[in-house]
Amino acid sequence: MAEWVQNLMDSMGYLGILLLMILENIFPPIPSELIMPSAGFAASRGDLNVALVIVMGTVGSVLGTLPLYYVGRAFGEERLVKWADKHGKWLTLSGKDIRKADDWFDRHGTKAVLFGRMVPGIRSLLSLPAGMSEMPMPKFLLYSAIGSGLWASLLTGAGYLLGENYDRVEQYIGPIGQIVLVVAVIAAVVWFVRRRREQRQQPG
């Protein structure tokens, strides 16, 4: 993966960074923790300008959020509520749960998008609830850009400083994304089990 990323950037330069960061948001197996440090390493060699690397990485990351945002927007809260009321029983999920989650995102969505863009494992997924809750596009783009810019700057700077050892960034940060996903799965399982118990305890 590292060699493919490096070869693409060597051949396409800034456009390669843009395309890779768009794809990273749609296909998470392509990690930003490898793309941006690699670009930072190229900047340290004098092949690329570090400021333009960060700009292109940020723009690519923001553009990459749009497909899932529009999927969430097209699906929408009301459709999800109707689906949950009709088919969600086996998941212990109801339309009321969906509305509660949507209300939470309405209150805290800006912080979730801003800080979530810097958390491996959930960076891309946050676009779905943002779209489903119909977060206004300007607000979504603004907070995505700020979070993505900070993340791109951090990774680019790490690659710039580490030089040929830029791949260590992915080695250290990559497992964090896996831990986040595991924690999310465990939390979902705990919630599921509790809801099942509550339903069984409810009279008739």
TrEMBL record:
<keyword id="KW-1133">Transmembrane helix</keyword>
<dbReference type="InterPro" id="IPR032816">
    <property type="entry name" value="VTT_dom"/>
</dbReference>
<keyword id="KW-0472">Membrane</keyword>
<protein>
    <submittedName>
        <fullName>Alkaline phosphatase</fullName>
    </submittedName>
</protein>
<feature type="transmembrane region" description="Helical">
    <location>
        <begin position="12"/>
        <end position="30"/>
    </location>
</feature>
<dbReference type="GO" id="GO:0005886">
    <property type="term" value="C:plasma membrane"/>
</dbReference>
<feature type="transmembrane region" description="Helical">
    <location>
        <begin position="140"/>
        <end position="160"/>
    </location>
</feature>
<feature type="transmembrane region" description="Helical">
    <location>
        <begin position="50"/>
        <end position="72"/>
    </location>
</feature>
<feature type="transmembrane region" description="Helical">
    <location>
        <begin position="172"/>
        <end position="193"/>
    </location>
</feature>
<keyword id="KW-0812">Transmembrane</keyword>
<keyword id="KW-1003">Cell membrane</keyword>
<feature type="domain" description="VTT">
    <location>
        <begin position="30"/>
        <end position="160"/>
    </location>
</feature>
<dbReference type="InterPro" id="IPR051311">
    <property type="entry name" value="DedA_domain"/>
</dbReference>
<dbReference type="Pfam" id="PF09335">
    <property type="entry name" value="VTT_dom"/>
</dbReference>
